[in-house]
Amino acid sequence: MPDLPAAAESTRMYREVRESAAAIARQLEANRDVIGELATRLRRERPALVATGARGSSDNAATFAKYLIETRLGVTTASAAPSVQSVYAARTGLDGALFLAISQSGRSPDLVAQAGAAREAGARVVAMVNVVDSPLAAAADVVVPLHAGPELRVAATKSYLCSLSALLHLAAEWAGDACLRDALARVPEALERGWQHDWTALVDGLAAARNLFVVGRGFGLSAAQEVALKFKETCGLHAEAFSAAEVQHGPMTLVERGFPVLLFAQHDDSYDGTLAVAERFRERDARVWVAAPGGGDLEFAVTADPACAPLLAVHRCYGAINALALRRGRDPDAPPHLRKVTETR
User: Can you tell me the distance from the alpha carbon of 219 to that of 255, in angstroms, rounded to the nearest whole number?
Assistant: First the structure.
């Protein structure tokens, strides 16, 4: 068997994850003007609603957008289903709303149709997209480039992280939040620092696992959703994401001795509640890991603003997922049955 640590560093997934810090630093500098102008316009227009359109990892980023915009700006934010337009040909009222489309490729026909319909319905359409000459970008009023650079492997990693940083950048400028702005500026360095934390215990503990719960609350729910998706895609592990509130209802009945549970926590008002849920799992003899900034069973880098924590947590977890895929005899760069662009209609 090849040396797994060495093999892990040879994958395209590993290289793309490690490129994320530089990509985010590049993005923050390159997008200063477009984000500043958009934030000024949004302060003037004061949209009462933000609707998001996205698929896959980008939809996980949209979950983050909901918590970020609602908590920092007080604007109701909801996920809009692309099939309302692409399948049912229905029209919804979005006059004066902000429609936020998030995509790596910008080529999924249903998202393009959704963005066009939102614009016709009176929304201001903003596309956060990695491919700036894509059909989705062409359908938008404003394009916020993700600047992730080429992402060649099937499972998106750095484009998800760059989506989060773009959302944080927009929220900081829209709200005039100097603390968030400063914390975000330190994220690239924190990503490099956090990479040194050892997550081998998670790789060892999931090597033979068949099922996994991934749990988060608030900002951390997006991290749970994204990580669960990557465990499925690259490791062939049946992982399901839950809110720390919702998992205590029906899903808790599935947990028995040794059942693996990964929880993401950040130092905000959800922190104590998330740790309390972890303790409930431990009382059922589950195999529990809590990932938290500066502590927990699994550690990632500390940030001055808890809204940045999911970005740092997922970045470090990507490294563990890459190693776990190899440990389970799978190629993280070529998941079976998947394509880079899923052209749903």
Answer: 24
Residue 311: count other Cβ atoms within 10 Å of its Cβ: 30
Flag whether pLDDT at 208 surpasses 70. yes
User: What is the spatial distance between Cα 147 and Cα 111, in angstroms, rounded to a whole number?
Assistant: 20
pLDDT confidence band for 2 (50 / 70 / 90): very low
Alpha-carbon gap, residue 326 to 323, rounded angstroms: 5
Any idea which residue has 């589950």 for tokens?
286
Q: Cα 29 to chain center, whole Å?
A: 21
3-state class (DSSP) for residue 284: coil
Amino acid at 230: K
**Type of residue at 164:** L
Structure tokens at 212: 């996994």
Among 317, 300, 341, 292, smallest CA distance to 239 is for 317
- Output the DSSP codes for 67-79: HHHHHHH--EEEE
CA distances from 268 to 221, 236, 300 (A): 13, 33, 16
The predicted-structure confidence for 211-239, as pLDDT tens digits, reads as follows 999 999 999 999 999 999 999 999 999 99
Confidence class for position 4, pLDDT limits 50, 70, 90: low
* Confidence check: pLDDT of 295 > 90: no
pTM equals 0.94
- Condensed to tens digits (0 to 9), the pLDDT of residues 132-188 reads 999 999 999 999 999 998 876 668 899 999 999 999 999 999 999 999 999 999 999
Across the beta sheet with 260-264, the strand order is: 238-243, 211-216, 260-264, 287-293, 298-300
Can you tell me whether residue 12 is helix, strand or coil? Answer: helix
Beta-carbon contacts of 240 under 8 Å, excluding residues fewer than 6 positions away, are 211, 212, 213, 214, 228, 251
